[in-house]
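Deliverable D2.4 — example input (C-alpha cells):
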C-alpha cells in the first residue's frame, strides 16, 4: 500500500494482493485422549472439528503399551486420517493430535506436530497451541550447549528442556521446562503412562477437559467434544497442569497465581461459533458485538450484509439491534483453497471472486451495511467493497465488529508486521478512502468488553489479552527485545 499524490492506492505487488494473507491466521488445535480403545479414531474426529484452527498440516501420536506410533501429514485431516489403513497404523488406547498453521517455523513435514522424542524416561510426545516469545533466545543457548534441533518449530524447545532437566519424575521435568519459557501455550503431552495438559499462567490459549465413556479428553475447544459425543467437564485453568493416568486425574498449580488473560480473538474470530469458551457461547458473544456495533455506529441503510462466514453472527446482531433486514448479499464458495497464483496482476485481483460472489438481487440499488469481523491489511476489504459497487449497491457502509488492529500478535496469531497493518499506519478517514466505502466504523474496545458482559475495563474485573487493539502485551517479549537490540546495534555500527 502506498500514497501517491495524496491518494491512497494498493501497491501493485503480488505480496499486497495475496488475499489469503489478508486475514488473521488461526493458531493451532490440540486434542488428546487417555485409555480408550479407539483413541486414534476419536482423535482424528476431534481434529476434524478443530480443522478451522489450522489447515496446513495434521498429526497423531498413539501409544499401544509397547511403542509410540506416529502419523504426520501435510494438508487437511480428512485427506489423511479418514482411511481405515491410517488409523490401523495408529494402534493404542492413548493418543494426542494436532492441526497446524505455522506461526513459527516453516511449513515442512519436520515441523508438523505432535513432536516426539525418546528421553531417558521413555517416549515423550507434545503438541502445542500458542507461541513462545523467548523460544529463539532459549534455542540459541541450547544449541551453544550442544543441543541438536530437528525442526524450526518453537515447540521443540520444550522437548529439549524436558530432556535436559535433572529432575526425577517426568512431571517435575515438565514443570521445570515450563518455568523457563515465556509466551502462550496450551499443551497436550503423552508419555508411556500419562496424558498431560497444561495452560500458560495467563491462560492466553484455551484448553478444555472432557470425558467419553469414563475416559478423559483434552481439547482446544468444546466443539471437538461435541463431535464425538463427549461430556464437557471444565476449562483447564490458567497456570494449571493436569495429569491423566490409570489412577485418574490430578491437578497441579506450580506457578504463582495470576489473573487470567485469555485471548479476546477466540470470541471475535478463532473459535467455532458453536463452541463454549470460558462459559460463554461464542455465537452469542459475536451477536452481542454486532448489536453493540449498531448502537455505536448505526447508519441509515436498507440491508445488512455479512462478509461470510465469520461476519455472519455479528451481522445478525447488528440487524436485530438496528431493525435493518439481514440479507445474504455475498455468497461464499466453500470449495476453494488458497487463491491460485496467477502471472498477471489483473488475474490476481480476481482471486477474491473465487471465494466470494455478490448476490446481485439483494444488493442492487440498496444502501448496504457490510459487516466483517476485522481488517488486517485491507486488501480483501477493497475487493469486497468494489464487488458490492459493481453489483449495483447504492451505498456501502463498512462496519467492523472489533476495534482497529494496530499491533501485531506474538502469542500464536499470525499477523503482519505493524507497518503492514492498515489501522497502524492510516487514520480512519484514510482507511475509508483506501477501502472505497461510504463510511467506516469499528467496534470500540469498551464495546468489546460490554459485549462480554463487562461495563468497563475496571482493573478488578477479569480482563482479556487485547494487545492487538491496545498494545498492552501481557508477557515479556524477550525475542523481540533481543532482535530490536541487534537492529539498533547494527544501525549504530552503520552510522559510526
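Example output (designed residues):
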Amino acid at each position: 500500500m502506498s500514497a501517491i499524490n495524496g491518494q491512497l492506492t494498493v501497491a501493485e505487488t503480488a505480496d499486497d494482493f495475496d488475499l489469503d494473507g489478508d486475514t488473521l491466521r488461526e493458531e493451532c488445535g490440540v486434542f488428546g485422549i487417555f485409555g480408550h480403545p479407539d483413541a486414534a479414531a476419536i482423535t482424528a474426529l476431534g481434529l476434524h472439528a478443530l480443522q478451522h484452527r489450522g489447515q496446513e498440516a495434521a498429526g497423531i501420536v498413539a501409544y499401544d503399551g509397547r511403542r509410540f506410533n506416529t502419523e504426520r501429514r501435510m494438508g487437511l485431516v480428512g485427506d489423511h486420517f479418514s482411511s481405515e489403513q491410517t488409523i490401523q497404523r495408529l494402534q493404542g488406547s492413548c493418543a494426542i493430535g494436532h492441526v497446524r498453521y505455522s506461526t513459527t517455523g516453516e511449513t515442512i513435514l519436520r515441523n508438523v506436530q505432535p513432536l516426539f522424542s525418546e528421553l531417558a524416561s521413555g517416549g515423550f510426545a507434545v503438541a502445542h497451541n500458542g507461541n513462545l516469545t523467548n523460544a529463539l533466545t532459549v534455542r540459541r543457548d541450547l544449541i551453544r550447549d550442544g543441543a541438536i534441533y530437528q525442526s524450526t518449530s518453537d515447540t521443540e524447545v520444550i522437548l529439549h528442556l524436558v530432556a535436559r532437566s535433572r529432575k526425577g519424575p517426568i512431571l517435575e521435568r515438565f514443570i521445570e521446562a515450563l518455568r523457563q519459557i515465556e509466551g502462550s501455550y496450551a499443551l497436550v503431552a503423552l508419555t508411556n503412562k500419562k496424558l498431560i495438559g497444561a495452560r500458560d499462567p495467563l491462560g492466553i490459549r484455551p484448553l478444555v477437559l472432557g470425558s467419553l465413556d469414563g475416559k478423559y479428553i483434552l481439547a482446544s475447544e468444546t466443539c471437538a467434544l461435541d463431535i464425538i459425543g463427549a461430556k464437557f467437564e471444565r476449562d483447564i485453568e490458567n497456570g494449571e497442569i493436569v495429569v491423566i493416568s490409570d489412577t485418574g486425574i490430578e491437578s497441579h498449580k506450580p506457578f504463582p497465581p495470576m489473573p487470567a488473560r485469555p485471548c479476546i480473538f477466540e470470541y471475535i474470530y478463532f473459535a467455532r461459533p458453536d463452541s463454549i469458551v470460558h462459559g460463554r457461547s461464542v455465537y452469542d458473544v459475536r451477536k452481542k458485538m454486532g448489536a453493540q456495533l449498531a448502537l455505536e455506529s448505526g447508519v441509515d441503510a436498507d440491508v445488512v450484509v455479512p462478509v461470510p462466514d465469520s461476519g455472519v453472527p455479528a451481522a445478525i446482531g447488528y440487524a436485530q439491534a438496528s431493525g435493518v433486514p439481514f440479507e445474504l448479499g455475498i455468497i461464499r464458495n466453500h470449495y476453494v483453497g488458497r487463491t491460485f497464483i496467477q502471472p498477471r496482476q489483473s488475474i490476481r485481483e480476481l482471486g477474491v471472486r473465487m471465494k466470494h460472489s455478490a448476490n446481485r438481487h439483494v444488493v442492487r440499488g440498496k444502501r448496504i451495511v457490510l459487516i466483517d469481523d476485522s481488517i488486517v491489511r485491507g486488501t480483501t476489504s477493497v475487493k469486497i467493497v468494489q464487488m458490492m459497487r459493481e453489483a449495483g449497491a447504492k451505498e456501502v457502509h463498512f462496519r467492523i465488529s472489533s476495534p482497529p488492529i494496530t499491533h501485531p500478535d506474538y502469542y500464536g496469531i499470525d499477523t503482519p508486521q505493524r507497518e503492514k497493518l492498515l489501522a497502524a499506519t492510516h487514520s480512519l478517514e484514510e482507511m475509508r478512502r483506501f477501502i472505497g466505502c461510504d463510511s467506516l466504523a469499528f467496534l470500540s474496545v469498551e464495546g468489546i468488553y460490554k459485549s462480554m458482559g463487562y461495563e468497563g475495563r475496571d482493573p478488578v474485573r477479569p480482563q482479556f489479552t487485547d494487545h492487538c487493539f491496545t498494545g498492552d502485551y501481557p508477557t515479556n517479549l524477550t525475542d523481540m527485545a533481543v532482535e530490536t537490540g541487534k537492529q539498533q546495534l547494527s544501525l549504530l555500527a552503520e552510522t559510526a
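Residues 478-495 form the longest helix (18 residues).
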